[in-house]
Design goal:
D-isomer_DH_NAD-bd, NAD, 12 strands, seven-stranded parallel beta sheet, five-stranded parallel beta sheet, Rossmann fold, oxidoreductase, alpha/beta, 2 domains, Glyoxylate/hydroxypyruvate reductase A, NAD(P)-bd_dom_sf
Length: 310
């Protein structure tokens, strides 16, 4: 029997992905569903976002690859045998894009860039005082993207720390772990960056109680998921002056409603979920590496834990 790799049709640029992957894998034919002569031959599937029961159609599935870094919608929507590894395709392109966004947002805040954009619209020549010393940045979530962001910020002179839910070796010196250490983490952060996966434990974590633990004048950058943030709690913290501002790239409902108060709040920068991005050539190249490692019995990075959901 031939061996196949099957792409779900909602994979971004699925045809380019298929063609690239075909040149990088041996002993496999690559198809985009439903153009597949035999579902029994499929050993690897590549998916993105909601799928219903797509993997259940594949009786001999050995590996499931998920495009991009977010798997919350996938884990919630399908039933996957625990024997089948589910791997996020967090390639170097994604890591560089999101971490660059985080650095940009932090520097914009420190150099007061948003104020100058508004001043230009008013033809106002007025120099503001920059934040004299680069403030400490706390990264919530030290996966591939979070760690890359922390290392870039540190290289630019920002003091950095991290908060995670599980204890293991990290490439960051100051790391806080679990709910018991969340308060100690928060009080360190003049800028806090959320790069967490969205799970039952992290939903709504950016809330009034958390904001109150941050230093007065703290700044929020959210590139995780919209479900991490309680919108009204952020607006209240900004109105009270406890937070100085926020840069938000992800939202509970996308696209963000034109009536949403985030649009008109001068302390909030809104971007339309553009921090990351998928390039089929990069995703396919990374997929080929993961497939090779799996078929040769090597340890895989980025495997999703069905219990923790990341």
């Amino acid at each position: 029997m031939s061996r196949s790799i099957l792409l779900h049709p909602n994979v971004p640029d699925a045809i380019i992905f298929r063609d690239t992957l075909s040149t990088l894998t041996v002993n496999f034919e690559v198809f985009v569903w439903p153009d597949c002569p035999s579902l029994e031959s499929v050993e690897v599937a590549v998916i993105w976002q909601e799928l219903n029961d797509f993997p259940a159609m594949l009786p001999n599935l050995r590996l499931l690859l998920v495009c991009g870094s977010g798997v919350d919608s996938v884990i919630e929507s399908i039933s996957i045998p625990r024997s089948v590894p589910v791997v996020r395709l967090v390639d170097q392109y994604i890591r560089e894009r999101v971490s660059d966004y985080v650095v940009m947002a932090a520097l914009n805040h420190v150099r007061r860039w948003d104020h100058y954009v508004r001043h230009q619209k008013e033809a106002r020549w007025h120099r503001l005082t920059d934040i004299s010393v680069k403030p400490k940045v706390g990264i919530m979530g030290l996966g591939l993207i979070g760690e890359t962001s922390a290392l870039k910020l540190a290289a630019m002179g920002f003091a950095t720390c991290g908060w995670v839910r599980t204890r293991r070796s990290r490439n960051l010196t100051e790391v806080y772990v679990g709910d018991k250490e969340l308060h100690d983490f928060a009080r360190q952060c003049a800028i806090v960056v959320c790069v967490l996966p969205l799970t039952h434990q992290t939903r709504g974590i950016l809330c009034q109680q958390f904001f109150e633990r941050l230093p007065e004048g703290a700044y929020l950058i959210n590139v995780g998921r919209g479900g991490h943030l309680i919108d009204n709690d952020l607006l209240q913290a900004l109105d009270d002056g406890h937070l100085s501002g926020a840069c938000l790239d992800v939202f509970e409902s996308e696209p963000l409603s034109v009536q949403h108060p985030f649009w008109s709040n001068p302390k909030i920068t809104v971007t339309p979920h553009i921090a990351g991005g998928l390039r089929p050539e990069w995703q396919a190249t990374h997929a080929a590496e993961v497939i090779y490692d799996h078929m040769n019995g090597r340890t895989l990075n980025g495997v999703i834990n069905h219990v923790t959901q990341y």
